[in-house]
Write a structure and sequence with these properties.
Length: about 350
């Protein structure tokens, strides 16, 4: 079976590669239908990663957020035509302590080997989760990034104490919106506060109990726990501001990705007895849990429609490049590519 793979050969240069897929009794074949562009994809596409990383990773097909239709399943897990979300994390071992997304032996699509930007994806049944009937496919396309927030909240339960009256989320972008939405959906009883710099974006956080510009936070506002969803060069400022406003023995969850080291106020971390933990990527159980949440609370999917940015139909390399270039200049939201069959 001949497969077309759309690989990034070097920054801003996409090439077509033809690979043969040998059908067997273990692997499921999925035809991607909706793919979402992530900031990590853009770092490869624009070449903002280090030269050593680019030389090691490229050429490679991008995209780790996507859904598709099953076209062949010898395992009998799925029916032909079933719509599934594809899990990019591919573990090679099982550890009773370390989750699959933290094992150093695990592989991740679009970061080390080919992602979902191909005509057909060959995978195993455990790397697929059946989507609910009638779900908004454009939203479902970025299930992976939502699962990352779901995973971070699940870890938060492990590390935090049980006083969870006031929780803050720093970051008014996609990740901040998703994390805030899941926190409020899972725990409507909490007081959820959002902190950012773009007031027009924060207007979309209608489910939050308060949204504040980082330069105008009330002096008497304190938090039991907080989530950092800023990343980049501003990560350290967000973390240090959290340290200022968080109560003693609170928990800080770090989700934002930064290429640079982030200096933080360790003196106050010690004085307040704070717990800081990081979360990255997600695993199968997070996808399964999130899909169940979608079923129980369809309003979550409805809220996620607010961060759908540009939707672009693609048929060839030129269309794919256009989608990536358009995504660079987006003001807000996720850019989703739909394969024009």
């Amino acid at each position: 079976m001949l497969n077309t793979v759309y690989q990034l050969k070097k920054p801003r240069q996409l090439d077509i590669l033809f690979k043969d897929i040998t059908l067997d009794d273990k692997h499921v074949i999925v035809r991607p239908t909706h793919l979402s562009i992530c900031n990590a994809d853009q770092r490869y596409y624009q070449g903002t990663r280090s030269e050593e990383v680019l030389a090691k990773k490229l050429p490679m097909a991008l995209i780790h957020e996507g859904i598709g239709k099953v076209v062949y399943d010898p395992t009998g897990t799925f029916q032909t035509g079933d719509e599934v979300v594809m899990i990019p994390n591919v573990p090679e071992q099982v550890d009773e302590i370390i989750a699959e997304n933290y094992l150093r032996t695990s592989k991740f699509r679009g970061s080390g080997f080919d992602g979902f930007l191909q005509e057909y994806v060959e995978t195993t049944a455990d790397r697929l989760v059946l989507l609910p009937k009638g779900i908004n496919k454009t939203v479902a396309a970025f299930t992976e990034i939502v699962s990352v927030s779901y995973h971070a909240i699940d870890r938060f339960y492990r590390f935090s104490h049980k006083r969870r009256n006031n929780i803050g989320v720093w970051g008014d972008g996609n990740l901040g919106y998703i994390t805030s939405l899941l926190l409020k959906s899972l725990h409507p009883e909490i007081n959820l506060y959002v902190f950012g710099i773009d007031e027009s974006k924060m207007n979309d956080f209608t489910f939050a109990d308060g949204a504040y510009h980082i330069s105008r936070i009330p002096d008497d506002l304190t938090l039991d726990h907080a989530f950092e969803c800023v990343g980049g060069g501003a990560a350290h400022r967000a973390i240090n501001q959290i340290i200022d406003y968080i109560n003693p023995e609170g928990t800080i969850s770090i989700l934002g990705v930064s290429e640079d080291l982030a200096p933080i106020n360790t003196r106050m971390v010690l004085e307040k007895g704070l717990t800081i933990f990081g979360s990255s990527r997600s695993g199968r159980k997070d996808f399964v849990g999130l899909i169940e949440l979608y079923k129980k609370k369809p309003e979550v999917v409805a809220y996620l429609e607010n961060i759908v940015g540009t939707v672009i139909n693609v048929r060839d390399v030129k269309d794919i490049a256009y989608a990536f270039e358009t995504d660079i200049h987006k003001l807000i939201g996720k850019t989703v590519m739909i394969w024009d069959e």
